[in-house]
């Protein structure tokens, strides 16, 4: 999480330091599952949010989203 970013984590998620985590469980091939969080900040400028999912046999997927806050 970006510095100064405050979050609310529903759906069984947990905040640990600057990371949010959820346990996904088993998913069938091609299946999807969505997780949500709400955030706020008083910082101005770009905020980079990164996501990483890991699975069996050391599989991994990553993504990134940039939100720009204007003052």
- N- to C-terminal distance: 20 Å
Overall shape: it is elongated
Q: How many helical elements?
A: 0
Q: Bin the strand percentage.
A: over 45%
Task: Enumerate the spans where pLDDT stays under 50 for 5 or more consecutive residues.
Answer: none
Major sheet characteristics: 2 strands, antiparallel
How confident overall, as mean pLDDT? 86
What is the C-alpha radius of gyration, as a whole number of Å?
A: 14 Å
H/E element sequence: EEEEEE
Coarse structural class: mainly beta
Spatial strand arrangement across the major sheet = 1-4
Considering DSSP H and I runs of 4 or more, what fraction of the residues is helical? under 10%
Number of separate strands: 6
Question: In oligomeric terms, what are we looking at?
Answer: single chain
Task: Describe the protein's architecture and organization.
The chain is 0% helix and 45% strand. The protein is an all-beta fold. The two termini are 20 Å apart. The chain has strands at residues 6-8, 14-16, 19-21, 38-40, 45-54, 60-69. The model has no long low-confidence stretch (mean pLDDT 86). The strands form 3 sheets. Strands 1-4 form a two-stranded antiparallel ribbon. It has a two-stranded antiparallel ribbon with strand order 2-3. The chain has a two-stranded antiparallel sheet with strand order 5-6.
